[in-house]
Amino acid sequence: MREPVAPVHNDYTIKSGPEHVRELLDADEAEERFKHRFVEINVWGPIRGPVQSTPLAVCDSRSIAQNDLVPTVLKHEVYMVRFSPQHCWFYFPAMETNEVPLIKGFDSMEDGRARFTAHAAFEDPTAPASAPPRETLKLVCWPFMGQA
């Protein structure tokens, strides 16, 4: 059990994404996988809904400048995100158990598509004072793909 994470962050960096793959796989298999696209995706959803307390918010990657991403070492290197008035945020109000966003934490492709998804929990001022604490589940998936 973990408390919701309020600081805006992304779970991996350009450095720690490949490092994590090397931790998951033996060296030869990891090197073979690096020849193709690989991504990390969080499958995030409520165990009990609707989520009223500390909902999930995600930032549109098109609104994040590269210098907004600050590498920081926690358990491994993650990106903390500097505030910018350019950031465009979305959140999932009253998310139910049948609603499950996919959050891209890392993408090895460097062709202009989104490589990361900055996200955070926040205190929703419209939440009722009696709202139960958020209970969510996060599954981390590392799908490996052929050529994109």
What can you see in these coordinates?
The chain is mainly beta and 148 residues long. The chain has one domain (9-141). The chain has 2 helices and 9 strands, in the order βααββββββββ. It has helices at residues 16-24, 27-33; strands spanning 9-10, 39-46, 56-59, 69-73, 77-81, 89-91, 102-107, 119-121, 136-141. β4 and β5 (77-81) form a beta hairpin. The mean pLDDT is 92.
Blueprint of the fold:
Blueprint (H helix, E strand, L loop, with lengths): L8 E2 L5 H9 L2 H7 L5 E8 L9 E4 L9 E5 L3 E5 L7 E3 L10 E6 L11 E3 L14 E6 L7
Antiparallel strand pairs: 1-5, 2-7, 2-9, 3-6, 3-8, 4-5
How large, in whole angstroms, is the Cα Rg? 16 Å
Q: Give the strand tally.
A: 9
The major β-sheet equals: 3 strands, antiparallel
- What is the number of domains? 1
Secondary-structure-derived class: mainly beta
Mean pLDDT rating:
92
What is the terminal separation in angstroms? 36 Å
> H/E order of the elements?
EHHEEEEEEEE
Helical proportion, percent range: 10-25%
Descriptive labels:
single chain; 9 strands; mainly beta; three-stranded antiparallel β-sheet; 11% helix
Q: Can you summarize this structure?
A:
This protein is mostly beta strands and 148 residues long. Helix content is 11%, strand content 28%.
